[in-house]
Amino acid sequence: MKKLILTLSIICIGIIAYAQKTEEGIIRDVFKLEKKATVAEFLQLSNDDATKFWPIYDQYEIERSKIGSKRIQLITDYVEKYATMDDVSLDKLVEESGSIQKSEIALREKFYKKIKKEISTSIGARFYQIEDAINISVRMSLYQELPMLQGK
């Protein structure tokens, strides 16, 4: 009986924890899985190269997701305030957006060099290419959904 109660308690805790996961978290998880599948399909790695590549990629994704969180926060702030933004706010928005883009490029360059060194230049270059293409695609999708500022 104690085992049954313990098992049911563990199941309930798991269900509650899962239910508390935000929609944003679920969307991010799905995006990461789809993105990883796209990267894998594009790179067509040998087993030996895959063994070396995926731990590096996982490290890259951890760092990239931090930058992605900054972008999401910036977009959220923009959407909430765009209709009432003054010149100072707009200037700050543009500077932060530029900073995020520079961080994304610097991160891709850092991991390109790491992949180039540990695997090959060709795989590093393909990694850089697919990550750049995915980033551009995501940004374009986001920008299509954002409200645009109207001229004064």
What order do the helices and strands come in, and which of them pair?
Layout: H1 2-20, H2 23-43, H3 47-81, H4 87-118, H5 121-145
Helix pairs in contact: 2-5, 3-4, 4-5
Could you walk me through the main structural features you see in this protein, from its secondary elements to its overall organization?
There is one protein chain. The protein has one domain (23-145). It is elongated and about 55 Å long. It has helices spanning 2-20, 23-43, 47-81, 87-118, 121-145. Helices cover 87% and strands 0% of the residues. The protein starts with a helix and ends in a 7-residue tail after the last helix. It is built from five helices and no strands. With 152 residues, it is an all-alpha fold.
Number of strands: 0
Q: Strand fraction band?
A: under 5%
Structural class: mainly alpha
Q: What separation lies between the terminal Cα atoms?
A: 72 Å
Order of helices and strands: HHHHH
In short:
The protein is mainly α and 152 residues long.
Please name the defining characteristics of this protein.
152 residues, mainly alpha, 5 helices, 87% helix, 0% strand, disordered N terminus
